[in-house]
Amino acid sequence: MLKEERQQTILNEVDLHNRILNTDIAEALDVSIDTVRRDVKELDADNKLRKVHGGAISLGSMNNSARNTNIYKLEHKVAIATKAVSLLRDGGVIFLDGGTTCMELARIIPENLNLTCFTISLPVAMELSNKANLNLISIGGQISKEAQIAIGANAIHHLSEIRFDYSFIGTGYVDAIYGLTEFDWDIVQIKKAVIKASKKTVLLSISEKLNSQHRYKTCDINSINTMITELNPENKLLNAFKNHDIKII
Predict the structure, then answer these.
(1) ∠ CA(90), CA(202), CA(59), 5° rounding?
(2) Nearest-CA neighbor of 99 among 74, 117, 136?
(3) 8 Å CB contact between 27 and 70
(4) Rounded distance, CA 101 to CA 237, Å?
(5) Could you confirm whether domain 3-61 is CATH 3.40.50.300?
(6) Architecture (CATH level 2) of domain 74-248
(7) pLDDT tens digit string along 53-87?
(8) Is 207 exposed, middle or buried (0-12, 13-18, 19+ CB in 10 A)?
């Protein structure tokens, strides 16, 4: 594989999953870790991604005070967020995960809607702080610098004392058989605690993540009550998920 093709594969993966590990890319491309490290270093120098310890993160996942439009498949994520808004009810108590799709949901929550919203995400909390009728509660803990969310025992303990009407979560990987998976063990533990604290859990995922899996399991697919993608619910790509007891929007 040519270097240009290899680097494009790296960019595709980091755009889709927001963060990648060098070891995973080396295995997938059947090249050495050193080769991947060099590629990631070059892509970082070209300002196409950000190099972090052991891998890379997408520029689109790096949030600041201004609207970040450098987000992979932004139009799909906006479509998912628009569908998710229909589930919100005045007076509800919800949880909003980190990640770019949940950020789009945070942006478009109606200003006149009275909600109590918990989040572990620093960027999502900043976005929600602008909503006049929204009671915002940030769940604290050790901060993952790459994901910009609270993780660890303190955050998990706080989640154990709450009961959400709805939690809106993202995932790195989702499969009809293997369920939701991630490559980060700490993030998996947080998501497990969120699901346990929720009356109903809503998965927000672009369709490119369907039929993918990684090493650490968050939950079975049946632990999710609703799955929202940018696709029409009748799309054949969703057929495998229709065999499970989940609502597809």
Answers:
(1) 105
(2) 74
(3) no
(4) 20
(5) no
(6) 3-Layer(aba) Sandwich (3.40)
(7) 899 988 876 654 445 667 889 999 999 999 999 99
(8) middle
